């Protein structure tokens, strides 16, 4: 079976391919594992399918898979149907964004929701991450299959390699579009950094930090929210604080607040080697409900605990036995409890690791293979 993956990646001047998280989790990694497990599965990647891509090239494939949308969907569908090539579409997010979302104006100005809906309509089948999102898609196209996000356990970067620390490390691992989610608990985080015991025994980590002088960056906003504009550090860490203000990421890793700078998607799992609890608040709205439980999966595979909002999609995995639920205590209350009872981290971590084992791509690949085979044969 020869598969063509059409998704958003960039080839730089050195010829290296740069992937975003969606392409990594939804297109590249699942098909790498599929190729490893099933003889005869081959795949090729292209960043877009347009008239520059000749029919003779396309005819060489049994199946074409698109990520999120299809450029010029009606025309492309007509072209592929005439060539007799089956094609599917993968969706990992809802196409209607809340009006406070970072990308809301971009979606409206570029009519992205219509593009995604039209793509869903013409696809022979659609895959997605959860039942809740599948129900949305079924209103447009009934041929929907759930393929959960998963982890390639053969990849060395996903092995457990916890780095020791004298502090209990609470890390914020969400991306640039989560500022309103972070705002749910940012005041309690800053309050914690003002707390004497936390200041000496705890640590707040902001991952993915990416900022340049005189340029806008959402991560500067994140840092201001978490640290009360660095006022929590100014009195006792003036030199360290000054470096942060100059957008220098200090080498010291044992301070009460720490940055971890942005990494390539292939290296990002290393972040979890530096943390004990992944803190992932989420607003309760329709858009977020259509997301996946991926952040819990990541934490579980990397020997971390999770502190989560008790909302969909986290409730697919999170419960009081494997996570610190923000519906039970707020961040300030949880950190005080955890610092006084550090063994609870081990209990939650072990249970979460057990509960996410089923998200190994080795286990998920059979379902993917059967879906692909069903449309090729």
Your description of this structure?
This protein has 377 residues and is α/β, with parallel strands linked by helices. The chain has 17 helices and 14 strands. It has a 6-stranded parallel sheet with strand order 4-1-5-6-7-8, with helices on both faces. Helix 1 crosses helix 17 (361-376), helix 8 (186-194) packs across helix 15 (331-340) and helix 14 crosses helix 16 (343-355). It is elongated and about 70 Å long.
Specify the biggest β-sheet.
6 strands, parallel
Name the shape in a single word: elongated
Unreliable stretches (pLDDT < 50, length at least 5) are none
Order of strands in the sheet with the most strands? Answer: 4-1-5-6-7-8
- The rounded Rg comes to 22 Å
- The end-to-end span amounts to 10 Å
Oligomeric state: single chain
Compute the number of strand runs. 14
Mean pLDDT: 96
Q: Note the total helix count.
A: 17
Q: How much β-strand is present in the residues?
A: 15-25%
The structure class reads alpha/beta
């Amino acid at each position: 079976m020869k598969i063509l993956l059409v998704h958003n990646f960039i080839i730089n001047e050195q010829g290296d391919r740069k992937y975003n998280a969606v392409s990594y989790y939804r297109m590249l990694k699942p098909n790498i594992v599929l190729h490893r497990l099933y003889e005869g599965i081959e795949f090729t990647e292209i960043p877009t399918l347009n008239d520059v891509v000749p029919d003779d090239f396309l005819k060489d494939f049994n199946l074409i898979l698109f990520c999120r949308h299809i450029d010029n969907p009606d025309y492309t569908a007509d072209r592929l149907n005439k060539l007799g090539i089956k094609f599917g579409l993968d969706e990992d997010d809802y196409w209607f964004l809340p009006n406070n979302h970072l990308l809301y104006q971009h979606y409206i100005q570029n009519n992205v929701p219509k593009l995604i809906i039209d793509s869903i309509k013409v696809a022979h089948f659609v895959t997605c991450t959860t039942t809740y999102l599948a129900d949305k898609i079924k209103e447009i196209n009934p041929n929907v299959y759930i393929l959960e996000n998963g982890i390639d356990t053969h990849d060395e970067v996903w092995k457990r390699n916890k780095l020791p620390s004298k502090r209990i490390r609470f890390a914020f691992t969400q991306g640039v579009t989560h500022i309103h989610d972070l705002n749910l608990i940012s005041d309690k985080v800053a309050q914690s950094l003002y707390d004497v015991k936390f200041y000496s025994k705890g640590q707040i980590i902001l991952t993915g930090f990416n900022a340049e002088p005189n340029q806008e960056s959402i991560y500067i906003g994140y840092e201001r929210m978490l640290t009360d504009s660095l006022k929590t550090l100014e009195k006792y860490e003036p030199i360290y604080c000054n470096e942060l203000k100059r957008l220098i990421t200090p080498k010291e890793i044992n301070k009460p607040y720490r940055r971890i700078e942005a990494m390539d998607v292939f290296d990002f799992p290393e972040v979890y080697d530096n943390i004990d609890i992944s803190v992932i608040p989420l607003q309760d709205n329709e858009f977020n409900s259509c997301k996946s439980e991926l952040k819990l999966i990541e934490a579980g595979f990397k020997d971390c605990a999770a502190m989560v909002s008790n909302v969909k999609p986290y409730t697919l995995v999170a419960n009081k036995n494997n996570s610190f639920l923000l519906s039970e205590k707020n961040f300030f209350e949880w950190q005080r409890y955890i610092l006084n009872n550090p063994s609870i981290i081990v209990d939650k971590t072990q249970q979460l690791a057990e509960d996410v084992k089923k998200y190994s791509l080795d286990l998920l690949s059979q379902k993917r293979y059967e879906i692909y085979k069903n449309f090729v044969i």
